[in-house]
Amino acid sequence: MEQTTSPRDPARQPLRWAVLGAAVAGVVLAFGYVGGWLAPARLTPARIVDALQANGGLHPGYRRNHAKGICVSGYFEGNGAASVYSTAPFFAVGKAPVVGRFALPGGNPYAPDSSVPIRSMALRLTAPDGEQWRTGMNSMPVFPLATPQAFYEQAVASAPDPKTGKPDPGKLKAFVGAHPEMAQFLAWVKGARPSASFATETYYSLNAFYLVDKDGKRQAVRWRMAPQQAGGAGDPAPAGEPDILREDLPRRIAAGPQRWKLLLTLAAPGDPVDDATRSWPADRTTIDAGTLVLDGVAPQDSGPCRDVNYDPTVLPAGIQVSHDPLLAARAAAYADSYLRRTSEEAGIPGAAPLSSEKK
């Protein structure tokens, strides 16, 4: 049969260009939506980070949250107890190097250590084949809010009043009243006191994840790092010593490695997996998966943690994210903050000037 049109027939070219143009336009529109360009009212990572920056102040070269911190290093020694639930290499018997960071929440790198009762631990574990597990944990057992939008609104409500330099109590009261999901967190806050040592705190994953075994079976889990050294969170940080945490940790590590047990709590059917504001019952099965050993410490401006983005969604095979909306928001906001501070340190044109003491 005679072919009336060839693949290169000029009559068909406009149709091809139309299809190609539609595809390109679709990609542009998708990026525009994600970036917030086509939906100005939509919550974006940049808006979240802007709100954090407005509260903590602009400190070029620093993280926009958890700005005040210190680097640590060591290793994690898996004991094999969790390997039946997950193929992740870190749960097998063996050691993996760790680069970590302790910090305070907030964007002010000069905040006194007694200003907040929460401390954080972030870790990057690296397997022999290069796989990584990054996790960011905090010293409270639940998160105050369940969604990125609520977190953003809290940041806005907490913004300092230009006249007083402090948050407006009326706005904070109204926000709390509109968010009953904060109840468990507020109950914890009532008895919490700023501790005098990073080394004596328990750190919680807050968000849930899934362990995946060799057959693909998933088990929802939360984890925590439980300290093995003497002392406790009940040892308060003196108000007159603004840097007691940074001074305490090097002394402790000089005296010997600091250790935590990695405890995995397995969810039962019906436990809330995608809501970090709700705790699980205390009788859930808990597995001792191994020991974190920290034996090195360094300033955050020159230590190995300086250039690490502790994105909690960077996971090895054998661990998966849950559908908790906070996880995607954390990853996106951390990336935005990382780009800002590294751009400032690199002196990229148009970036804010770096302070004399970079971090």
Automatic annotation (TrEMBL):
CDD domains: srpA_like (cd08153). One of its GO terms (molecular function) is metal ion binding. This is Catalase-related peroxidase. Keywords: Heme, Iron, Membrane, Metal-binding, Oxidoreductase, Peroxidase, Transmembrane, Transmembrane helix. It is an enzyme of class 1 (oxidoreductase). Has an organic peroxide-dependent peroxidase activity. It comes from the Bacteria. The active site is at 66. GO terms for biological process: hydrogen peroxide catabolic process; response to hydrogen peroxide. InterPro entries: Catalase (IPR018028), Catalase_core (IPR011614), Catalase_sf (IPR020835), Catalase_SrpA-type_pred (IPR024168). Its EC number is 1.11.1.-. Residues 17-359 form the Catalase core domain. It holds the Pfam family Catalase. Heme binds at residue 334. GO terms for cellular component: cytoplasm. Belongs to the catalase family. The keyword Membrane applies. Its cofactor is heme. The chain crosses the membrane at residues 17-39. The keyword Cell division does not apply.
